Amino acid sequence: MVKLVDAKTGAREVRAYFWDHPEPSMPVAGGFMLWPAKVSFPPKVTMAINKKWQNGYIPMVMKEGPRGEILHEGVEQLVEFRFNLDIGQESGSLLKL
User: Is the distance from CB of 90 to CB of 79 less than 8 angstroms?
Assistant: First the structure.
């Protein structure tokens, strides 16, 4: 997970990367060091997940639940995505994990 803060607005964003991504705190010549993603998926799922989250990460938006608990919207989306893959509704194919 990577936590980002917008310098202008102060807004915070947490991202769960599934692609390798530049690490802003580790500059190297010509850019930033690539940090390996901690999450990976089976090859047959890669195309479907890349289609849904095209930037290589799942935004982890926090919100308050009905009982005051903190919910992570990105986790909910990933669980729903997995369910849809299991029943063959993502990408119009019958993919199984």
Answer: no
Q: Check residue 89 and give its pLDDT.
A: 58
Handedness of CA 36, 42, 44, 49 (dihedral sign): negative
Distance CA 4, CA 2 (A): 6
Q: What three-state secondary structure class fits 30?
A: coil
pLDDT in tens, 59-85: 887 777 788 777 777 777 877 887 777
Q: What DSSP assignment string belongs to 11-25?
A: -EEEEEESS-EEEEE
Are 96 and 84 in contact by the 8 Å Cβ rule? The answer is no
> pTM for this one?
0.60
Pairwise CA distance, residues 94 & 2, whole Å: 32
